Amino acid sequence: MSDLGRVLVIAGGLSHERDVSLRSGRRVAEALREVDVDVEQRDADADLLAYLRHDPPAAVFPLLHGAQGEDGGIQEVLALAELPYVGSPPISCRQTFDKPISKGLLEQAGLRTPRGAVLSQAAFRELGAAVLLDSLVKRLGLPLVVKPARGGSALGTSVVHKAEDLPSAMVECFAYGEAAMIEQLIEGTEIAVPVVDTGAGPHALPSVEIVAEPGTYDYHARYTAGTTEYYVPARLPDPTGRAVAQAAVTAHHALRLRDISRADMIVDADGTPWLLDINVAPGMTETSLLPQSARAAGIGLGDLARDLLSAAIERHRATQ
User: What remark does the entry make about the cofactor (predicted)?
Assistant: First the structure.
């Protein structure tokens, strides 16, 4: 048995991404058991904090996706409980989960992001939707991507090729949040680059190239086996491969992230990476990108999770 002690995987929660979170949690827990770690999995429910106080684990691996898991909520609870955990501190999670804020920080770090705008549901409803949307199209052109300003797994995200389809895309987006971020669609190769740090500093794992049918990497394509092709490492020229790896690490630093992250980007025809989103709690399901990338690097998921937990424990000890 591993000398880590008993560790806890938290998965589930009440966000729209609950099912994905449970799948991620089961997979990581199984992988940890395969490397002889004593692991328990629990849901994020009303009994969690009492459990943590009564029988604290040696460390926690939170695998909650969406709100609560990526907005700093669970991280704040674990910090209050004075428990070591894998992942970024609460303030970094909050600013990364808020796409308009993280977009600004990425641009300040010299990274390219698509031109865009943010509209609240209240503004859309009360200030004249037709005029607002017409102004958006005139300013940004078409096609556009509409996505919730806070959220993940492409829920509520639409690609709009015709102006008459923009109102319905906005309504769908508002079903998942109070604000929408509308950006120019960047054409190119869809890439994801995980970044991990088990104690020696953040470094990029092999990039993952995503080829989805019919061309949109939506929720169904992300989590349904066989619907998407992946190439690991991505089929990029060496200079471009180095550029996407550097962009992912730069984003990790710019947002003051810790332990693990994933940068989603488009590489255009000139080889320029455009940052689309940064994820502080990457999925760990059988179709998720980070486990594929780790496997291509020769790293088992159980080994990676164990090393991240070990690093969290050492970091916690150093602050005592």
Answer: Binds 2 magnesium or manganese ions per subunit.
